[in-house]
Design brief:
With 472 residues, the chain is α+β, with helices and mostly antiparallel strands. It is built from 13 helices and 18 strands.
Length: 472
């Protein structure tokens, strides 16, 4: 074979291979387009089915409420163990590293009309195209709402939902935080509340969240499904799903109407557990705390994000099981590890738990929620540091956060008729009160039984069997 013939053969083979790749790529692009069109038609079919259902007569449902957590009022005064008075042999001042500044949100450059939203202490701007600002004029009934949904469902929502997703990711938002953000944005776009409600419904649906409009009296409201159980929040049941009333905590109207459709595969209930990295502002203060343990006085300061505390005060009230599973903020966890962590490094497991228990028992003043707030309100660990008083579930959540930060282990919440405490799995064979769960012995840690040791139960609870809840 000559050199010229060899070159010609190689070129012919190369062109043939390129042509094959081109054909294959064309076929792949054709297949990809078919899949995309199929997916879009599937979504379009879902939207059409939903529009048809909205246009029919809505079903009436009766409101229900989650009963109060405790069957008896919490005591205003608690028993305490008396310790011999002694001057501390040592004063230990625990240092904590300064809290780093939270990332500052820099709004992207947006062309065209944009709308400003203030989320707690953060300013943000979002562009909303005109095709997504369609108003529903005249009387809002099931048929007009169906027509509105049909029109809006055909619009491109990606530019808006992408902005919301990016903002939410940068600030560690959960689904509830996204719903609040969308609510704030709707208030900038529309004057009428009913229009705001249906727009929130559309956008949150496009974000994959299970929400729906409903008629309460003469007003439209928003319903949402939740992975967590909420206390004191009215709800209805559709199939096996609870739908809670958003921004409505009390109502004299016990009947509500909405379309009769269970959750579709494209939406999920809202997750209301706050993220440990939630960022809604950079306003900080420090809480000075002190406690005594076995001859030593401990002094420390822990950081509190004021913006986060103020925002969390607006959260729906989680049921105790979900409340106790809320993770400790990263800033507080880091501070606990920096300050108290070295003190535990040379302690036995029993001694470490005793020290942390004494910290939670004696570093705070006690008042019930009714005395401090005039209502039932559970405080998360960072909120315990902010407010002047705390009671049993507040301290239990705080102690859970401390143990999770410094000495992680399986924990249980023990709910009595008017009291809450936790129990911890320990090394060895602990002595004292505590349940056996999944074949393992746990030891009681009561954060409001002042000066009590692990395993000591309040006298008035000795004949009471608690409800046991696993802390996730």
């Amino acid at each position: 074979m000559t050199f010229r013939t060899s070159v010609a053969s190689i070129l012919l083979a190369t062109f043939s291979l390129a042509a094959s790749f081109s054909i294959a790529n064309d076929e792949y692009q054709k297949w990809l387009q078919e899949q995309k069109q199929g997916f879009e038609s599937y979504l379009s079919k879902q939207d059409q089915e939903l529009a048809d259902l909205i246009g029919k007569e809505w079903q009436e449902y009766k409101l229900s409420f989650k009963e109060a957590t405790y069957t008896r009022p919490k005591p205003e005064t608690l028993p305490e163990q008396t310790l011999p008075e002694e001057d501390p042999d040592e004063v230990v001042t625990l240092d904590v590293e300064p809290v780093p500044d939270l990332p500052v949100y820099v709004a992207p450059t947006i062309s065209g009309v944009s709308y400003s939203v203030k989320f707690q202490a953060i300013e943000a701007r979002f562009q909303v195209t005109n095709n997504l600002k369609k108003e529903l004029h005249g009387k809002i009934d099931s048929q007009s709402l169906s027509n509105w949904w049909t029109d809006l469902a055909q619009q491109n929502h990606d530019p808006l939902t992408s902005q919301i997703k990016n903002f939410a990711q940068q600030h560690a938002f959960n689904d509830w935080d996204k719903a609040v953000l969308v609510t704030l944005l709707s208030e900038q776009l529309f004057f009428k509340n009913d229009q705001r409600i249906i727009w929130q419904w559309y956008v949150l649906n496009r974000l994959g969240l299970d929400v729906r409009p409903a008629k309460l009296g003469n007003n439209l409201i928003l319903l949402f499904a939740s992975y967590q159980t909420l206390v004191g929040q009215p709800f209805i049941r559709i199939g096996g799903t609870k739908y809670y009333l958003k921004d409505v905590s009390e109502t004299k109207n016990l009947n509500i109407s909405t379309y009769d459709l269970q959750r579709t595969s494209s939406t999920e209930p809202l997750n209301l557990l706050p993220s440990p990295d939630l960022n809604v502002g950079s306003k900080w203060q420090y809480r000075s705390l002190n406690f005594n343990f076995e001859g030593s006085e401990f002094n420390l300061k822990l950081p509190v994000n004021i913006d986060r505390v103020e925002y969390l005060a607006t959260y729906p009230l989680l049921d105790l099981k979900d409340f106790m599973s809320v993770d400790v903020p990263t800033s507080l966890k880091d501070a606990l590890r920096t300050s108290l962590g070295p003190e535990l490094s040379n302690q036995t497991d029993e001694k470490a738990l005793s020290l942390l228990l004494r910290f939670a028992q004696t570093a705070f003043d006690y008042k019930t929620d009714q005395e401090q707030f005039g209502k039932e309100k559970y405080l998360l660990a960072e909120e315990v540091l902010f407010y002047p008083y705390s009671d049993c579930e507040d301290r239990s959540q705080f102690l859970t956060a401390v143990i999770d930060s410094l000495s992680p282990r399986p924990l249980l919440a023990l709910q009595f008729p008017n009291h809450l405490a936790i129990a911890a799995e320990t090394q060895g064979s602990p002595k004292g009160y505590g349940p056996v769960y999944s074949g393992k012995k746990y030891i009681l840690l009561d954060s409001t039984y002042k000066n009590a040791s692990p395993g000591q139960l309040m006298p008035h609870l000795k004949n009471t069997k608690p409800k046991i809840m696993v802390i996730q």
